[in-house]
Amino acid sequence: NAGVTQTPKFQVLKTGQSMTLQCAQDMNHEYMSWYRQDPGMGLRLIHYSVGAGITDQGEVPNGYNVSRSTTEDFPLRLLSAAPSQTSVYFCASSYNPHTEAFFGQGTRLTVV
Amino acid sequence: KQEVTQIPAALSVPEGENLVLNCSFTDSAIYNLQWFRQDPGKGLTSLLLIQSSQREQTSGRLNASLDKSSGRSTLYIAASQPGDSATYLCAAPDSSYKLIFGSGTRLLVRP
Questions:
Q1: Cβ–Cβ contact A102 with B under 8 A
Q2: Which of A8, A78, B4, B53 is the most buried (most CB within 10 A)?
């Protein structure tokens, strides 16, 4: 049972480039979310989804897009990378908001 | 608005000591509270989930309690070991069920 899988683990982008961070879970969880973790700021919610075809904004959504075409996958797109988006990104999933949340191992992104 | 606070930010104890980590939340109308462990450079590992109807939850040497009326949860670690060294985070949902995290307590258990 793989759980929550994030790819890539590390990425360096130049300012203005775009990329997609992948997240997949094999637990048939409806609820998926993306967080960024920065020193001194803790974990902040970027976007979340309560099921296929349904997404909503979190605390810090600007500069990021998401879509949820399947239950398993929840990719995060950076449209035009900025140095302020240098961070560690975590994907999480749970059966519903009231159940245990499981996290991926993270993607460390550096924008130069 | 749900706010989650963890004090202290860092804690250093000798091996074998029993210790308590604290988590406070402002909105007591929560469905659950979850404790996580994060090792350096790694993701978050779920330790315990306490539902609002529960007072305690135990897993091995870990015991988490929840007091909704006072807006507090504690994570008790018995007989601490160097392998327990990590950052411990608590998270509570807000009124829209989004998880709100504390900033964590960085624990060092000295051999």
A1: yes
A2: B4
The answer to whether the Cβ–Cβ distance between A99 and B97 falls below 8 Å is no
What is the end-to-end Cα distance of chain A in Å, rounded?
36
Q: Are A109 and A20 in contact (CB under 8 A)?
A: no
Q: A45 at the B interface (CB within 8 A)?
A: yes
**DSSP conformational letter for A83:** G
DSSP string, B37-104: EE-TTS-EEEEEEEETT-SEEEETTEEEEEETTTTEEEEEE-S--GGG-EEEEEEEE-TTS-EEE---
Q: Chain B contacts of A104, Cβ < 8 Å?
A: 43
Q: Is A92 an 8 Å CB contact of chain B?
A: yes
**A20, A81 Cβ separation under 8 angstroms:** no
Specify the residue for token string 């048939």.
Answer: A28
